[in-house]
Amino acid sequence: MAEPYLARTAVATLSRAAAMGLLAESEAVETLDLDTLKSMARHIGAAGLAPAALAELSAWKTGSPERLRDLLEQVDRALVDSPVPDHEWPELLRVLGEPGLAALVGVARVSLRRYAAGRRATPDPVAARLHHVALVVGNLAGSYNDYGTRRWFERKRSQLGDRRPRDVLRGAWSPDAPGPRDVLALSEALLGSPAT
Q: What DSSP state is assigned to residue 163?
């Protein structure tokens, strides 16, 4: 990936897909190349997202970096716009733990266990909050390990009025509300920059 913007787009898309639980746990990304992107396309495609873009990406042999970047951006937009709670619960539980995740998405731990196990369908408002948290975690992945990600939610941030992200993401919040949007924007600022 010679073009820096293409590489950044690919890394952001891979990080988001991983945080959403859409990549195979056994496949560690060690090299950012076409085979890695095709593997990502297979896994995301299995969740039913961005079928046209993923089909083209899966068949990609040669073409312009601009077209490849456009395909990755289409996939990334589909990821942003498409909660997949059945995939997101296990991955976010692994990263954030049960108490932390339950608090961030505003559900009781017993309800979280039911949703995560598939014994109850995740209600749309909870799925939206879960997805928002997955997007934040995906943004943090390039700067923090799992421990650092958990700590990120605990530290006060001047950009949040000296509140912690976990204090903003409390109760039955909406991803469209200003505070949660600010948390997402704060995490997005870390893409391509050193950890803060």
A: B
Contact (CB, 8 A) for 114 and 86: no
| Mean model confidence pLDDT for the chain | 90
Mean pLDDT of 36-51: 89
Measured CA to CA, the distance from residue 89 to residue 46 in angstroms comes to: 17
Each residue of 161-173: b (16+ CB within 10 Å) or e?
Answer: eebbbbbbbeeeb
pLDDT score of 196 more than 70: no
Q: Do the Cβ atoms of 26 and 48 come closer than 8 Å?
A: no
- Residue with token string 């690919």: 10
Confidence band of 27 (pLDDT split at 50, 70, 90): low
- Whole-angstrom CA distances from 73 to 21, 150, 168 are 19, 28, 29
Q: Give the number of C-alpha atoms closer than 13 A to the C-alpha of residue 75, restricted to the C-beta side.
A: 33
- Please give the Cα distance from 39 to 184 (Å, whole number): 27
Using the Cα atoms of residue 92, residue 189, residue 51 and residue 126 in order, give the sign of their dihedral: positive
**Calpha distance 103→89 (Å, rounded):** 13
Q: In this predicted model, what pLDDT tens digit does every residue of 95-139 receive, in sequence order?
A: 999 999 999 999 999 999 999 999 999 999 999 999 999 999 999
